[in-house]
Amino acid sequence: MELRVLKYFLMVAREENITKAAQLLHITQPTLSRQLMLLEEELGTRLFLRGRHNITLTDDGLLLKRRAQVQHELAAWFGSTYEHLQIAATFNLFVNAAIMVKHYVGTALILDLGTTLYDSLRFIPLAPQLENGAVLVWKKNLVSSRVVSAFINHIQQYPIENTSLNC
Predict the structure, then answer these.
(1) How far is CA 64 from the centre of its chain?
(2) Whole-model pTM?
C-alpha cells in the first residue's frame, strides 16, 4: 500500500465525496475511484458505503482512517527517510514496547512521560520536536480512583502553553 493511496483515502474520508476529493487532489474522479477500488481489493474489505451524493466509512474504513492518519503524521515528520523505515509492530502499552526494546527486537517511538520503571532504557528526544494539540477534560469535585488522580497530578506538572489549566 502506497502512502499516496493512503493520502487519497484520507481526503475522500474527510470530504465524504469522491468528486470533491478528486478536485482537491488534482486528479480525475475515475482515477480516484479506481485507486479506491484497488485499495479495497488489496485489503480484501469494503472501506466505503457509497450513496448517490456522498460516501461513508464502514467499520473497516474507520479503522483504516485512524491508522492512515498516524502513518501520514509519521511520514510528514520523518520526511524522505520514512520510506526506509521498517515498521514491524505497533503497540498500545508502553510495557510491551519496553520489553521489545529491552530484548533488542527493535526501537520504539513513544512519549516520555517521565516514568522511572525502565532505567535500562534510554530516551532520545527527536528533532524537530513533534507537537500535537490535546484537550484533557474532567469533572471538578468528582471522586477519582488513585490511578486517575495520579495521572491528573502528573499532567499538571507539565507547562501548558496558550491555555489555562482549570482544576
Answers:
(1) 10
(2) 0.56
Distance from C-alpha of 99 to C-alpha of 125, rounded to nearest angstrom: 20
Contact indicator for 106, 89 with CB cutoff of 8 Å: yes
**Displacement of CA 22 from its chain's centroid (Å):** 23
Beta bridge pairs of residue 50 = 55
User: In this predicted model, what pLDDT tens digit does every residue of 2-25 receive, in sequence order?
Assistant: 778 888 999 999 999 999 999 999
Helices (H), the chain: 3-15, 18-25, 29-43, 59-78, 94-102, 146-156
Long-range contacts (CB closer than 8 Å, 24 or more residues apart) made by 139-144: 140/167
Q: Which residue has the cell 475511484?
A: 33
- DSSP assigned state of 79: G
List residues bridging with 110 in a β-sheet.
none
Compute how many other C-beta atoms are within 10 angstroms of the C-beta atom of residue 55: 19
